[in-house]
Amino acid sequence: MQPVGFTPIPNRISRLVEVAYNLWWSWHPEAQDLFRAIDARLWEDVYHNPVLFLQKVRQSSLDAAASSPEFIRDYHEVLISFDEYQIYDKSWFSQTYPDKVNKPIAYFSAEFGLHECLPIYSGGLGILSGDHTKAASDLGLPFIGVGFLYPQGYFKQEITPDGDQAAIYQKVNFSEVPAQPAFNSEGKEVVVSIQLPPRGNLPERLVYAKLYHIQVGTVPLYLMDTDIHPNAHEDRELSARLYGGDQEMRLAQEMVLGIGGVRALRALGIHPAVFHMNEGHAAFLVLERLREFVLQGIPFHEAKEKIRQTSIFTTHTPVPAGHDAFPFPMMDRYFPKWHEDLKISRDEFLNLARQDQHWGPTFSMTVLALRLSSRHNGVSKLHGEVSRQMWQWLWPDKSVADVPIGHVTNGIHSETWLFPPLKQLFDKYLGKNWTRDIDNNDMWNKVYEIPDVELWDVVSQSRAAMVNFVRARTQQRLTRVGLGQDQLQATANLLDPNALTIGFARRFATYKRATLLFHDTERLKRMMYGDGKRPLQFVFAGKAHPRDEPGKNFIREVYQRSHEAGLAGRLIFLEDYDMNVARYIVAGVDVWQNTPRRPMEASGTSGQKASLNGKPNLSILDGWWVEGYNGKNGWVIGDPNAEYDNEYAQNHADAISLYELLEREVIPAFYDRDSRGIPPKWLTLVRESIRTCAPEFSTYRMVKDYTTQLYVPSMG
Ligand SMILES: *Cc1c(COP(=O)(O)O)cnc(C)c1O
Question: Which atom of ligand 1 is nearest to the CA of 582?
Fold first, then answer.
């Protein structure tokens, strides 16, 4: 019963294995605390991975836990909530749509950000998929995820002493993570295959993908891996890395995801009622479904209509280069006989996804997804508008306003992102069952019942935890790059745990303008030191895509600034932004800064995580913030309606606005203290951030919107 390689687990606590293999633990701190209680140091060493933990833990530690009455009590409490969680009949979905519980929803995504121990996500898109999946489980949807299990995942970021980003790929051993091979009804491992054309030394061949299963609460996630025998070396590399390789590799990867993904579901005996393509990467799934229908004798146009009615597509970026499109000759090579199988001509096949803008005639994954689905959406109100404009050419008889692309604004999975001591405050003041009621606006008025002292105490705790984390991480890094003892000692004084702290952590794409803050460094330095009584400090983190040179230059600039006199020690670049780092920063800074060039930020979700933790946003009015800002829960940088002649003029105006807001509003509100040392104005910002954003920008609200507006109407 116990998996091979595990330290033998005493019977009294044997269900720890079950807990370890269900990602449910990743949003239940009390479940993580069980592992921490057994061996806190090991829990950190294995990077919060319970499977590896149970393989490495000492027998004596397990025995000690099994004979500790406190541990046994906590263990039983956790298992009671784990078991209760899985009672399906009580869920929102089964109560709201009892006649739809047998209509599976298949959700395809190229990345899933579930937890830092599974590096199969790169950024916002992946985190969104992970949060969507967790909420689908919480709400009881008949939901199934499909994606990749990348053996090398996304890279770990190291910053060299010169400020260069080094990308480190580490091989993930699947037997050491909470994933297990998937089995079909006959108990056999599932392997699917896809035909690929000759390339280099490789002949035409089948590439195989093995299926893994990750359990996320009540939702199964099926992830494919091509790094298996008998695939050729190059094909084993196909799924090795997220967004690695050239355009042909990308095309082959997307064939495995879309086509292989449908075949994987069939091999498992799963027949989804609805297919949701999260971004265009998975759009080839519609081709495989077309092929299935036509093979069954259904005429092409009828098949196409059936697929349209049961497919949903979400687009995620207003940046043209963010939409994959493949040249026709490449499509001819990779899909040589597909049009024959579909009983249409080559031209009809290519026209399913033809796009002529930008790169000449190409096969666009977004066009394919838009044409072969009947319900499609952007990820915020503004992004919906931008998408209608962007894709209006597909509906030439419609005005922009009538283009049938709506929006479902992104949200976050609250329990994943909430600072645990704040969760305890919510437990105390919002009512015991508040986690079942996250999208209830009225419930959140109760944050006004949290006493100032307790709220300010948690805010201070979260900042202190973040500062300690920054110091420990910086120390590890300096040890790695081999710096001297005095520099190591200096890390003990990095950041001030009582100072107003601004956070900026996100992908280093240039449109996000990470370096805007340095527009006038002298003014910045004056602000940071002030009269010595109102210090201001900054924490930066983020990865750039390994091929994005301008993005990497931004990292270098921030890193170098963090060593400049007048900034050093009070402006930090923290390396290797991932979900673990994100949890510390979104909860631990006081203000979340965001400076995208409007309207490039489709939604953004990190600011929502900050709001949930009571951290006001200081942001350009873009993405979700257009809907989130209410005048009392943060600030708007710049004038959203201004038009600029050039980028410099825009940067200048936005930087000045940022400085003025900091000087006139943010710093005074934070340092205006009452006799207890508490800033009353600030606590209003804290409460307003939580009250207004926690319900509206939760994945509860989001997944319910998807369900009522998109999933259920598509179920027929
Ligand atoms: C939330 C999150 C993101 C996405 O944040 P944006 O606001 O969309 O930039 C990216 N990476 C990590 C690790 C996150 O936790």
Answer: 15
Q: Per-residue DSSP letters for 510-544?
A: GGG-GGGGGGGHHHHHHHHHTTSSS-EEEEEE---
**Pocket perturbation via mutation, ligand 1, pick of 319, 506, 543, 545 by most ligand atoms within 8 A of CB:** 506
Pair 28, 20: CB distance under 8 Å: no
Closest CA to 542 of 502, 501, 585: 585
Query: pTM (2 decimals)?
Result: 0.98
Report whether 603 contacts 377 (CB < 8 A): no
Q: Which domains does the chain have, with CATH numbers?
A: 11-86 (no CATH), 92-282 (3.40.50.2000), 417-697 (3.40.50.2000)
Alpha-carbon 414 to chain mean position: 13
Query: Which residue blocks in 26-144 are alpha helix, DSSP H?
Result: 29-38, 40-45, 50-56, 59-66, 69-85, 92-96, 124-138
What percent of the chain clears pLDDT 70, i.e. is strictly above it? 100
pLDDT at 1: 61
Per residue in 220-235, pLDDT tens?
A: 999 999 999 999 998 9
Task: Please give the Cα distance from 90 to 250 (Å, whole number).
Answer: 42
| Ligand 1 neighbour 596 (Cβ under 6 A) | no
What is the per-residue burial (b if ≥16 Cβ within 10 Å, else e) of 592-630?
A: bbbbbbbbbbbbbbbbbbbbbbbbbbbbbbbbbbbbbbe
3-state secondary structure of 635: strand
Ligand 1 mean position, distance from CA 467 (Å): 20
Q: Are 133 and 163 in contact (CB under 8 A)?
A: no
Q: How far is the CA of 414 from the centre of ligand 1 (A)?
A: 14
Task: Kindly give the distance from the C-alpha atom of residue 302 to the centroid of ligand 1, in angstroms, as a whole number.
Answer: 41
Q: Is the pLDDT confidence value at 388 over 90?
A: yes
Question: If you average pLDDT over residues 646-665, what whole number do you get?
Answer: 97
Rama region for 709: left / alpha / beta (φ>0; ψ in -120 to 50; rest): alpha
Q: Quick one: pLDDT band at residue 573, thresholds 50, 70, 90? A: very high
- The whole-number pLDDT of residue 151 equals 81
Q: Which residue shows structure tokens 């689905």?
A: 373
Which is more confident, 131 or 243?
131
| Torsion sign across C-alpha atoms 551, 556, 559, 562 | negative
